[in-house]
Amino acid sequence: MRCTFSVLTHDSPGVLMRIASLFYKRNFNIASLSVSQTNNPGVSRFTIVVDADEWACEQVEKQLGKLVEVIAVENLNEGKFVERWLALIKVKANTENRPHILQIADVFRCRVVDMGSDALTLEVTGDEGKMLACTEALRAYGIVEIAGSGSVAMSRAGFNNGVKKLDMGYLMADKAV
Length: 177
Fold this sequence. Notes:
Helices cover 31% and strands 38% of the residues. It contains five helices and nine strands. It has helices spanning 15-25, 54-66, 98-107, 128-139, 168-176; strands at 2-10, 30-37, 43-51, 70-75, 81-92, 111-115, 119-126, 143-148, 152-155. The strands form two sheets. Strands 5, 6, 7, 8 and 9 form a five-stranded antiparallel sheet that branches. The chain has a four-stranded antiparallel sheet with strand order 2-3-1-4, covered by helices on one side. A hairpin with a 3-residue loop joins β6 and β7.
């Protein structure tokens, strides 16, 4: 089972290390981890994807909530959520196969972000299945390099179906000060 967590934390040195060590100490494998700033200064959002059974997902949620820097934890699998992955894929592209690669890029709605005499770099955004399908379609032409962002996710607006909300009141009160 795959669990996706949205975790709001205070920006402070070492918070990434504390979160990663929590998973390491419990022998859980992180399938994807991304972090970025939020619309609130001093607050970061971690999107963490973990392969674990239901019991382990509950334990992860509880343990994350105990960390001092953590403001809120939301298990996105408890409701509907939007998830996107981003990948940059550099593919060998000579004059003969370039049109075929550009056609594949069009099918997967990729953007060409760099073009050289012997390679193209494509940007593909979507769910994990789209990433895998696009990579497989390009593999025959010779993938030179891949870099990916991992999952970025948040609950859907208006479709939460009883999912507990993040404590945004805390953030708003903090911002008003």
